[in-house]
Amino acid sequence: MSVCADIHARFKLNYAGFALDVDLNLPSQGVTALFGPSGSGKSTLLRCIAGLERAAGSLTVKGEVWQDEKHFLPTHQRPIGYVFQEANLFPHLSVQANLNYGFKRQPHRHDGFSLDEIVDLLGIAHLLDRKPERLSGGEKQRVAIARALAVNPRLLLMDEPLAALDLARKREILPFLEKLHEALEMPVIYVTHAPNEVARLADHLVVLNQGQLQSAGPLNETFSHVELPQQASDAGSAIIEAQITELQPQWHLALASFEGGELWIRDLSFNVGQKVRFQVMARDVSLALTADHSSSIANVLPAVVDQISDGDHPGIAMVRLKIGRNYILSRLTQRSLHSLGLNVGDSVWAQIKSAAIVE
Amino acid sequence: MFSDGNWAAILLTVKLASIVTLLLLIISTPIAWWLAHTRSRLKSFFEALVALPIVLPPSVLGFYLLLLMGPQGFVGQITQALGIGTLPFTFAGLVVASVFYSLPFVVQPIQLAFENIGENYLEAAATLRASPLDRFFSVAMPLALPGFLTGSVLGFAHTVGEFGVVLMVGGNIPGVSRVVSVQIYDYVEALEYGQAHSLAITMLLFSFVTLLLLYTFNPNRRTR
């Protein structure tokens, strides 16, 4: 991986019908998504990192050995915060007492967030006196996140924190997670099987399949791998991080610039300088051999064909394009691919019909 | 309503049941915890051993305890070596016998309560810096409280109701081992049905009210 590889994990685990065998470096900054279908071992890997599961192997976090052949640091001595799929709030304690539980057990009480800051961040001030049984699913999960932060962790582990919630509750929590993403300096490892959560939250992506590492790297590069199952479908897309550099108020458009290109997107009251993350659907990208500025498509960028693979239908092809340091995907018919005569390494023009801010 | 002898029997019974219940809570908690969490193949063996007093005739249990605690028995040799003498026909002996006799009635509800907590809350506590002992007292104990209540009530009530074991191990000594059930037996033997009746109806009411309270207020039956 490119960014500072400060978490090194190597685990081997054999259950009946399931084996985990991974050796990977994770960055010690930002949100790393552990992504894969159910049964891919992503939750098990997270539990190994937390010490909740004991696998053979080793784990080093920022130079500290948490596990090797001789040592195994028990969970309660690891400076982690853990958010479970089910909130697992203690039913015999109020919300406040649930938060206090970890807060009063943290080893270094002075640094890190105060309880008030955490309560504000998650918007749970009005829930503090309640018992968990009187909270909604979304509220429970917010309290669970606050409780995990209250121990002042140096590594935050989240195991599909939204999976047990319905769509409305997911929408309720995602903004809080994005806020966390901005407010937290600690690394976060986030397990999910939902591509849109990856698109919104992750900086780095680790893809697991059947207990094995499939690919790992920065979000844009790894997310646009055509081998990812969802990419071959109509929902295939790429994520680009960009900065707003120009506004055209009369057309309600904003210019989003990134390494290798720039795109006009609809202006959602952006400010110049603002960082945005937008999604380019593969089906909205068509290819041409020459720059054609006569069509209605405003965004035409020079690109290089990086990968070609089959789509989810025999008539469909997926093409991964490199634009500067970023990648986007194009979904086109096999016939178009044939008539353009495209090969890996060819220069093309990518016509991007639309790009939307990730939400 | 009660004669002095009857009061003595009642007080002795309550004293015995209280001490036994207290001891049982201390002994049963680690046993129940182990049974609830072990993956050992010995689990079934120990579960069967703990449950034995439920099905064993009290006279059988009493007989073996008598042998064990007697002058030639293993426990008897130890107690003699310690200078305590032998336990049969003493209050202490009765306490020991009652602990065995009522053990399953305390272990089983607590074990069930521990099993019902599951691993999730304990794992959450571990991620919140709680050591194993800390997790036990701050999470497992409070969540298993209904099991502890049920176990205490059943252990107490069952000890109050024992008869066969008392006769075998404790005999029928006033103030030492003549508990209510033995006293009733004495009255019936002597054809003093009136006296027997006053104690018997007291026991009947006590047992029924105890169970009624247990079934009415047991938080285990509440849906979570």
From TrEMBL, chain A:
Record-level GO cellular component terms: membrane
Superkingdom of this protein's organism: Bacteria
Mop domain location: 294-359
GO MF entries: ABC-type transporter activity; ATP binding; ATP hydrolysis activity; molybdate ion transmembrane transporter activity
Keywords: ATP-binding, Cell inner membrane, Cell membrane, Membrane, Molybdenum, Nucleotide-binding, Translocase, Transport
InterPro entries linked: AAA+_ATPase (IPR003593), ABC_transporter-like_ATP-bd (IPR003439), ABC_transporter-like_CS (IPR017871), Mo/tungstate-bd_C_term_dom (IPR008995), ModC_ABC_ATP-bd (IPR011868), Molybdenum_import_ModC (IPR050334), Mop_domain (IPR004606), P-loop_NTPase (IPR027417)
Signal peptide, first to last residue: none
Name of the featured protein: Molybdate transport system ATP-binding protein
Pfam families tied to this protein: ABC_tran, TOBE
Gene3D superfamilies xref list: 2.40.50.100, P-loop containing nucleotide triphosphate hydrolases
Domain ABC transporter: 2-235
SMART domains according to UniProt: AAA
From TrEMBL, chain B:
ABC transmembrane type-1 domain boundaries: 10-214
Keyword presence, Cell membrane: yes
Topology of the protein relative to the lipid bilayer: Multi-pass membrane protein
Chief location bin: membrane
Localization: Cell inner membrane; Cell membrane
Domain of life assignment: Bacteria
Claim: Transmembrane is one of the keywords in the record: yes
Xref: Pfam families: BPD_transp_1 (PF00528)
Transmembrane segments: 6-36, 48-69, 81-103, 136-157, 196-217
SUPFAM superfamilies listed in its UniProt record: MetI-like
GO terms assigned for molecular function: molybdate ion transmembrane transporter activity
Residues spanning the signal sequence: none
Family indicated by similarity: Belongs to the binding-protein-dependent transport system permease family. CysTW subfamily.
Function: Part of the binding-protein-dependent transport system for molybdenum; probably responsible for the translocation of the substrate across the membrane.
Name the UniProt record assigns to this protein: Molybdenum transport system permease
Native organism: Amphritea atlantica
